[in-house]
Structure formats: structure tokens, C-alpha cells
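quick one before i forget lol
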Amino acid sequence: MTARAAAKLYSPELLGLATGLAAFPLSDDLPLRAEARSRSCGSVIALGLGLDETGRIARIGMQVSACAIGQASAALLAQGVSGRDAGAVDAAAAALTQWLAGEGALPDWPGIAALAPARDHPGRHGALLLPWTAARTALSQGPGTR
């Protein structure tokens, strides 16, 4: 990767997002749990969710070992997930996957445009999708999924 490409990919906005993960620590009292690992880059995430009485996400916590792209994606998920249900997370994750494949628009999710430069770097796609994969897995354990 050239210095110019790296500067475009790792923008100050993206790097700022990555530091936002400190606001979402993983705690033992989050009942829905999942871990995910990217085969392409080795990034790892452990994620926990707590739902409210209507099945909407009330709390999220994460422990992330990933590049800045994976960290920023995790922060965007965490910042925008409160009050959403499994269907909304699933739809955003599916749209993100399609967008990365060049088959759709960026999903409607707060701040997601900060990840746009990563589309041109397939080696970062696994890290970008990692938090969404973990959230989908955790939500599959929630009420009404069995």
C-alpha cells in the first residue's frame, strides 16, 4: 500500500472512531455472546449484547483485536446499535457485504461513510465485517430465534 493510499484509508475520522471503542467495554453481565475471527487478517472480536424487554438492543460491549478498519467498524456498530433489533443489524450487515462486493450502496447506518475508503482494499474487508458477523451470531441466541 502506498503512503497516499494509506493516508486515504486511515483518515483522521476513521482513526478517531477506532479510539471510541473504550466506551463499550465487554462485561460479564451481557448475556448474548459471540466471538468472530477474520480468516483473511487474523482480527478477533468478542462481543456481548443485552436486550430490552421488546428484544431491542439495550447494551453492547466488545473486546477487539483488529486493525483500525476493524476497530472503526466495531465502533460504528456500537454507536448506532442501541434500540435496534436483530432484523436491523442483519439488514445492515447484508447491505455492507453487498456494498463491499460492488453490488449495492452503503447501508443506512450512522457514520458508515467513514469506512468507504476500505472498499478498495479487499484485504481489509474481513476486519470490517467482523463486528457485524459477531453481532449477528450473538443475536441469533436471543428471544424468538429458536
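fyi The longest strand covers residues 57-65.
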